[in-house]
Structure formats: structure tokens, C-alpha cells
UniProtKB/TrEMBL annotation:
Name by which UniProt lists this protein: DNA polymerase eta
Gene Ontology terms for molecular function: damaged DNA binding; DNA-directed DNA polymerase activity; metal ion binding
Enzyme class of the recorded protein, top EC level: transferase
Source organism (scientific name): Rhynchospora pubera
EC number: 2.7.7.7
UniProt superkingdom: Eukaryota
InterPro entries in UniProt: DNA/RNA_pol_sf, DNA_pol_Y-fam_lit_finger_sf, DNA_pol_Y-fam_little_finger, DNA_polymerase_eta, Rev_trsase/Diguanyl_cyclase, UmuC
Length: 628
């Protein structure tokens, strides 16, 4: 459910930038013969010409729509060029488009806080840039206003639509405008310049919305496509919302929007103005009620996050109609493919960006031969993510089995899977340097607590709670456990009490024990089991590896965490989640980066000399997908 965040009283300038027919543009850049020609990108599946996933604007002029298949598009537009999406492992490979998106982000992020919101869109907070411009070179003082800015559509100007560039020029330069509108005018010029740069440097066009909050900017960006921008002055907001169908708002596309229409007769967002906040709260609860009351007034306090990289990684595949998967072995085969891709992507995120994903989630859609409960959803399941393709494959399969068991209510029924997806979320940066790792882990020491269990929010792996299936070290059975997500991590009171008493009365030594508990959680893949025999083999192989430069990067630690032999026992899953020093297997420490070795040896044997003789290769390298 949406939650209203308090909106800052300070004026802001927020832009939402969305690429035009993105995959088509990427293909047109790869093959310039396609430029200016009706083009669409189709799924690899060739049934009826493949499903269209992106349609160029020339093709749209002929009536081609994304909902069509290739054959239908050919009927509507015989000259259309259908480009097949690249394929890898029997499914679409989107890497080409992802990196094209990154090129654009690199440019857009130069003017302020930038949040990558999807493969082809970002939010920008241009408040500071606009303030500087207003101080140093306000629009009225410019020798000339950039042409692209003059082509902007300013809502509410000249009775709803622009009369022309002269009106826009006047609006941009009006001396008696309020401060918010003056900033918005500067934002309009900044976004226009950024869009020109994007075109020059990447050959891609994009469209943008510019407003004083994210919600309004997002609503405005598709209003004039392709290759145009729309500005929302505060005075235009009531008219904009009065005519905006509720279903056009992302959060109102589902049941909430239907209830507003059916139960309250609310058809546009502006219709909500008729209801008091209290009334909306009575009907939909405190949070949603307040949120509805605010969006009716165009109020939205969401901040632009400073994030150029995706929040999560996911890959999935659908198996429609007769292609549904009906055996565990066929599910396993596809799950292995999906996990292989996911593993490659998180590994490259780790290598390139020093980011670690902490949660693995499995989503599926399924049907079963059960007349009584045909609509029951396949529950999404999550667990702590262990790096390494085979580990991810193994865990994903366990998640699937756990989900299937719930889905079937442990009955022996026939079933079929129509879509499968795996995701890696809860991605965090790894700070450089051991000291900061220590600090980082100390701050993040709240972890998966087996005693704190609940059901998942279906389809919302990145939100407040998620179901995790947790492998019990001994029984290999699965438990369901609620993992608090970053923003709302709350320390388990018992753990907290234990930590506080440790640091208060027992001094540094015990405080370190707490920290180790958390580091070890990373090493051991959270609550997962460790298989001693496997670890030993892997450790031996490591020792045979050529010695490599050991960097202080924690990537080595984190990517290795699932495989290190820590002699973890049942106590490791104890409530307080604190390891004893004895539980650290010294043979593991040899494989770690030097700085980490020093630190851990300091805990184990404060005065022992550090043995750096057999460090082996970096663990990140060792566990790269190529190695078995
Ligand atoms: P969109 O931004 O929704 O669409 P678009 O960029 O193709 O067109 P527009 O100019 O209207 O913004 O999606 C971005 C890309 O994501 C799109 O080019 C292809 C891909 N995509 C899918 O693969 N499947 C989908 O269902 C959607 C909506 C998009
Ligand atoms: Ca787009
Ligand atoms: Ca988009």
C-alpha cells in the first residue's frame, strides 16, 4: 500500500526522463538502416511472429501496438522491420539494452542526484543546479534560450497548451514569477540541455517531465512523446489531476483504483478532492487514506534516491499454455538457466561496483488441479543469497520446492508452472577498507532471525517484509522467516540487550565477538548451512592457485562467504546470532585478503604472527561461474 511521505516545504525541481521506444532505438543505432523505418523489437519466441516488446514511433503511426504479435504487426504495417531481441540461454538477453541505459544515466547524472528507476528511465533532483543557475545566469539574462527548451510544453500556459515558442520564452523569463516557478524555468533549460547532450553522445532521444515532485514529473514525461519535454507549474496541478483517470496512476492501477471507481465513483484523481482525509482514512486505513488525500492535491514527498545502479537484479521466463512446466526436473532445468544468468549479473555487479546482493527470491505463477482453490497464488520465497552459480541454483530449487509445497497445501495434485523468475535484492555497497567494513557490519548486524517468522507479501520482494525460506543447518528443512529490510531494520531486543551488555561490561573483546557474528554471517551465506567436505575441497584447490595480488577490497570476502568452512553448527542459528571465536575455522582465514586476515587473527590469537604464505587466488576469482 502506498505511504505518504511529508513533502518538503522547500521548492524542488524534479525531472523524470524516459527513453523513447528504447529497445527500438538501441537496435536502430546498431543497424542504421533501420533509422526512419517502421521497426519493432520482438521476443525470441517465433510463434505468430513473436510478441512485440518495443514499437518505434514510425510503426505506431501505422497503428502497430505492443500488444500485437509480429504477424499482426506485418498485416497492419507490411513494411515493418521486426528485430529479434538477443537470446541467451533460451531467453531474452537484455544486457545490450542495460548497458545502453547506463550510457544515458552517465550523462543525466552530471547535474544532480540521479535515481535509475528502470532500464530506460531516471529521476533527477535538479534543485541545486536550478538554484545555482537562477543566481548566476537566470533565463532572462541568457543571450539566447536553447531551442530545445523553447519547444517545451508548459502545462496551463495559454489555456492549457502552448501557443508557441514565444509564450514559452515569456514563461521562462517572467520577472514576477514566484520562486518555485523561477526554479522550474531553470530546470526546464537544464533538462533541455541534458537531453540534447544525450542525443549527441548516444544518438538516443528521450522525453522528460519537469515538476516540483516525483509524482508530477512522472505523470508529465509521457505527455508529449517522442523527444519532447513537459513542464508542470504548481498552478497547473489542479487541472492536470482533474482530468487524470485514476487508473493512470501506477499505484491506482489495481484493486485500490477499482475500489475508488466502483465504491466511491471516483474516476479522476481530482475527484478525490470531495473526500476529507478522515473519510479516506476510515475507508482505506491511515496510510493509504492520507496518501490518497495528498495525491488529490498533487502532494508527494518522495525523495530522489542517489542511485545510478539498479536496486535489484531479476530474470524470468514465461511458459504460456502448452509450454507450462509440469515436472520438477523441467523446472530445475529452467531454474538453472535463470540462476546462471542471475549469478553472472550479481558477480559482475560485485566486480564492477563492489555491491553485494543479500536476498535471493523466487517468484512463480502456477496452476493446479484443485477445483476448490484454483486461484491460490504460488507464494514468493526468499532466502539469504549465497554467491556462486551452483549455490544459487541449489537454493532457488529449494525455494521452489518450498513454494510448491505451500501452493499444493502438501496435497498430491497435478500442477503446472507458467512463469518462473529469480531475483537478487537488498543490494548494498561494500565500503573500502577493513575499518569501515567493521563499522559497516557493526551497524548492520541485525540479521535474519529464525524466531521472527511471517508470510511473504506476494510479488513484493523489495518491500517491507519478505518471506525467507531458511535452510536449517542440520535438518535441511525450511523455515519461514521475516527479514527486516534496510530502511526498517530493527535490532532484535534480545540481541540488542546482549550486545549492549557485552560492550558495557565485558569490553572490547566481546564487542568484537558480536561483530564477528555478523561478518561470519556474510561468510556463511547468512542462515545457510555449510558443507564441510565441499569447503575443504575448495580450500585445497585454492591453495594450489597461483598467488595473486590481494586487494583490500571486501569483494573477496563477500563473494566467498557461502563457501568458507566455518564449522558452523546448530548454535550458529541461535537466537542472538553471535559466534564464538572457536567457531572460526583458521584454515579459512588464510584465504582472505591480508587486512581481513590481520583483523580476524587479532580476534582469534591477538599476538599470533600472521601467516601470509598460502593466500591463493582471490576468492572472487575462484568462485567465478567458470569454476566448478
Ligand atoms: P517503456 O518505457 O515502457 O516503452 P518504450 O521505451 O518502448 O516506449 P515509450 O517511448 O512509450 O517509452 O519500456 C522500455 C523498454 O522496456 C521497451 O523499449 C522494451 C522493454 N519492455 C518490455 O520488454 N516489456 C514490456 O512489457 C515493456 C512495457 C517494456
Ligand atoms: Ca521508454
Ligand atoms: Ca520506461
Amino acid at each position: 500500500m502506498p505511504v505518504a511521505r511529508p513533502e518538503s516545504q522547500d521548492p524542488r525541481v524534479i525531472a523524470h526522463v524516459d527513453m523513447d521506444c528504447f529497445y527500438v532505438q538501441v537496435e536502430q543505432r546498431r543497424n542504421p538502416d533501420l533509422r526512419g523505418v517502421p521497426t519493432a523489437v520482438v521476443q525470441y519466441n517465433s510463434w505468430k511472429g513473436g510478441g512485440l516488446i518495443a514499437v518505434g514511433y514510425e510503426a505506431r503511426n501505422f497503428g502497430v501496438k505492443r500488444s500485437m504479435r509480429g504477424d499482426e504487426a506485418k498485416r497492419v504495417c507490411p513494411d515493418i522491420q521486426l528485430v529479434q531481441v538477443p537470446v541467451a540461454r533460451g531467453k531474452a538477453d537484455l544486457n545490450l539494452y542495460r548497458s545502453a541505459g547506463s550510457e544515458v544515466v552517465a550523462i543525466l547524472s552530471t547535474k544532480g542526484k540521479c535515481e535509475r528507476a528502470s532500464i530506460d528511465e531516471v529521476y533527477l533532483d535538479l534543485t541545486d543546479a536550478a538554484k545555482s543557475m537562477l543566481l548566476e545566469s537566470p533565463p532572462a539574462m541568457l543571450d539566447s534560450i536553447p531551442e530545445e527548451a523553447l519547444k517545451s510544453h508548459v502545462l496551463g500556459l495559454s489555456s492549457g497548451e502552448n501557443k508557441g515558442e514565444d509564450d514559452v520564452r515569456k514563461w521562462l523569463c517572467q520577472p514576477d514569477a514566484d520562486y518555485q516557478d523561477k526554479l522550474l524555468a531553470c530546470g526546464t533549460i537544464i533538462v533541455a540541455e541534458l537531453r540534447v547532450r544525450v542525443l549527441q553522445e548516444t544518438k538516443f532521444t528521450c522525453s522528460a517531465g519537469i515538476a516540483h515532485n516525483k509524482m508530477l514529473a512522472k505523470l508529465a514525461s509521457p505527455m508529449h512523446k517522442p523527444a519532447q519535454q513537459t513542464v508542470v507549474p504548481a498552478t497547473s496541478v489542479p487541472d492536470l489531476l482533474a482530468s487524470l483517470p485514476v487508473k493512470k496512476m501506477k499505484q491506482l492501477g489495481g484493486k485500490l483504483g477499482t475500489s475508488l471507481q466502483d465504491d466511491l465513483g471516483v474516476n479522476t484523481v481530482g475527484d478525490l478532492l470531495k473526500f476529507s482525509e478522515q473519510k479516506l482514512q476510515d475507508l482505506y486505513g491511515t496510510n493509504t487514506g492520507t496518501w490518497l488525500w495528498k495525491i488529490a492535491r498533487g502532494i508527494n514527498g518522495d525523495e530522489v534516491e542517489d542511485r545510478l545502479l539498479p536496486k535489484s537484479h531479476g530474470c524470468g521466463k514465461t511458459f504460456p499454455g502448452p509450454m507450462a512446466l509440469k515436472t520438477t526436473s523441467s523446472v530445475k532445468q529452467w531454474l538453472n538457466q535463470l540462476c546462471e544468468e542471475l549469478s553472472e549479473r550479481i558477480q559482475s555487479d560485485l566486480d564492477q561496483n563492489k555491491r553485494i546482493a543479500q536476498t535471493l527470491t523466487l517468484h512463480a505463477r502456477a496452476f493446479k488441479e484443485d477445483e476448490l482453490d484454483p486461484l491460490k497464488k504460488f507464494p514468493s520465497k526468499s532466502c539469504p543469497l549465497r554467491y556462486g552459480t551452483s549455490k544459487i541454483q541449489e537454493d532457488a530449487m529449494h525455494l521452489f520446492e518450498s513454494g510448491l509445497s505451500d501452493f499444493l497445501n502438501s496435497k498430491n495434485l497435478g500442477w503446472g508452472i507458467t512463469s518462473l523468475a529469480v531475483g537478487a535484492s537488498k543490494i548494498v555497497d561494500i565500503p573500502n577498507g577493513t575499518t569501515s567494513i567493521l563499522k559497516y557490519l557493526t551497524e548492520k548486524r541485525t540479521s535474519c532471525n529464525p524466531s521472527d517468522c511471517s508470510d511473504a507479501l506476494p510479488g513484493e520482494p523489495d518491500h517491507a517484509t519478505s518471506l525467507i525460506s531458511q535452510k536449517d543447518a542440520d535438518t535441511k528443512s525450511y523455515k519461514e522467516c521475516k527479514v527486516p529490510f534496510e530502511s526498517e531494520v530493527e535490532e532484535n531486543p534480545k540481541t540488542k540487550a546482549s550486545r549492549e551488555s557485552a560492550s558495557d561490561s565485558k569490553g572490547l573483546f566481546d564487542r568484537d565477538a558480536n561483530v564477528k557474528g555478523t561478518i561470519l554471517r556474510y561468510f556463511s551465506g547468512g542462515c545457510s548451512s555449510n558443507q564441510r567436505s565441499t569447503s575443504e575441497v575448495e580450500t585445497n584447490q585454492l591453495e594450489e592457485e597461483e598467488e595473486e595480488k590481494i586487494s583490500s577490497s571486501t569483494a573477496n570476502i563477500t563473494s566467498s562467504h557461502p563457501n568458507l568452512n566455518l564449522n558452523q553448527n546448530k548454535n550458529a542459528l541461535s537466537e542472538n546470532w553471535i559466534y564464538n571465536i572457536e567457531e572460526i575455522d583458521p584454515s579459512v582465514v588464510d584465504e582472505l585478503p591480508l587486512e581481513i586476515q590481520r583483523e580476524i587473527r587479532g580476534w582469534i590469537h591477538p599476538s599470533k604472527r600472521i601467516n601470509t604464505a598460502k593466500r591463493g587466488s582471490t576468492i572472487a576469482h575462484y568462485f567465478s561461474p567458470a569454476r566448478k
